[in-house]
Write a structure and sequence with these properties.
Length: 414
């Protein structure tokens, strides 16, 4: 009994009833247009004084509703109303306008169904409750204290008068049942008629892929810039602490390198986080490149006490900007890994040959470091950068040393 009451008068049933009444309200302009057509054809001035003519006007107006449903905003508006009032999962319905002929046809079918059922239920909701309430109160209304209403001959019987409240309540329950059935029908057909088509799914997949690409790029930038800076600052501070009393000049150089590293990293961090803030303008700090900051990167790495030998056999200013920027991050990550895990010295070789930029970072194998929770992401980030540029990368132990070799194409890197 409780379940039946919930199906007929529960919160979801009431919201779906409201959805149907909205459909009836939307149908009214089309019914008025239909009456303009039906009236002259039948020669009747008062179309709304006849139920058959009202139904005729309704039948003429529904095809007009199907035509106007081709308006681009119809599908997103109808889908939004169905989500809010019919209790349909948000992902089951499309968000944008219909793009293909099939989607427009399904939208027209839904709009016609919504207005058709809504118009009928709205008319029933206006007409039946007053009549049903009259039947419920009829035994009281015929009492002398209420003026002693005269009954029609069909109701001028004791048994008819006794059954009139039952008939009135049955009408109200029947109306609720019709509304629940029509609401369930609309909820069942909404995903099929308003659901995303192949074009919508493709657009959603492309949007997700673009969002994932941006997130991965930001993650790489944060890992390479902030991760390298923290590793360098940690080693610089550790080296300065060990020689604090014996080598003040080294301490001053280490502190200067820490200041320079943190200042540059804050600027890069602001540039990356600016992309994440809605409505914010991205930071203006330029992305570091081999041409602009390779010497500074080597100086800050050496300030931590790490011996780095660098050989550069290429004109850094002649590199394409994209290659120069990504190569800087690759070198930065290679040196960062050497700072954290490797022995000394570190050898860096950068050269151009056969239309490619070759980057090699080598260092002796150090003691196996303690594993970090979740593992590192540096080599994966390097592989992602290289793959996006169409290059190759190799990293691993070789003859008692750790070797990272990256080859990036120069042509087509725009």
């Amino acid at each position: 009994m409780t379940r039946a009451w919930g199906l007929l008068f529960g919160g979801r049933a009431r919201r779906r009833w409201i959805h149907l009444i909205l459909g009836g309200a939307l149908a009214m302009p089309y019914v008025l247009v239909g009456s303009v057509v039906v009236g002259p054809l039948t020669g009747v001035n008062d179309v709304f004084g006849s139920l058959p003519l009202q139904l005729g006007s309704f039948a003429v107006g529904l095809p007009l509703a199907a035509v106007t449903s081709l308006f681009p905003l119809t599908r997103p508006l109808e889908a939004g109303a169905a989500r809010a009032l019919c209790g349909i999962d948000a992902d089951a319905l499309a968000h944008g306008p219909a793009r293909t002929r099939s989607e427009r046809g399904r939208t027209a079918a839904w709009f016609t169904l919504h207005l058709g059922l809504g118009g009928i239920l709205a008319g029933m909701s206006l007409a039946l409750p007053p009549f049903a309430v009259t039947l419920v109160l009829l035994p009281l209304l015929v009492q002398p204290s209420f003026g002693g209403l005269e009954l029609p001959e069909a109701l001028d019987h004791t048994w008819a008068l006794a059954l009139s409240p039952v008939a009135g309540l049955a009408m109200l329950v029947a109306l609720a049942a019709c509304a629940a059935a029509c609401g369930a029908l609309l909820a069942h057909w909404a995903p099929a008629l308003l659901g995303p088509g192949p074009a919508d799914r493709l657009a959603a997949a492309e949007a997700r892929a673009a969002d994932l690409a941006v997130r991965n790029r930001l993650a790489r930038e944060l890992h390479d810039s902030v991760g390298h800076a923290l590793s360098a600052v940690t080693l610089q501070a550790s080296a300065a602490r060990r020689v604090l009393d014996t080598d003040p000049e080294f301490v001053r150089e280490a502190l200067a390198a820490i200041e320079d590293t943190t200042r540059r990293t804050v600027g890069e961090l602001d540039a990356v986080l600016g992309v994440l803030r809605d409505g914010d303008t991205p930071g203006t700090a330029p992305a570091p490149t081999l041409a602009a900051d390779l010497d500074g990167l080597l100086r800050r790495t050496r300030a931590a006490g790490q011996r780095v030998t660098a050989t550069v056999d290429t004109g850094r200013t002649a590199l394409p900007p994209l290659v120069s920027r990504e190569a800087y991050r690759i070198v930065q990550e290679g040196l960062s890994n050497a700072l954290k895990h490797a022995g000394e010295p570190v050898t860096l070789h950068i050269a151009t040959a056969d239309g490619h930029l070759d980057i090699t970072v080598e260092n002796p194998l150090g003691p196996c470091p303690a594993p970090r929770p979740g593992g590192g992401h540096g080599l994966r980030g390097i592989a992602d950068r290289v793959r996006l540029l169409g290059g190759t990368s190799l990293a691993g132990a070789e003859h008692g040393a750790w070797r990272l070799h990256v080859r990036l194409p120069l042509k087509g890197s725009t």
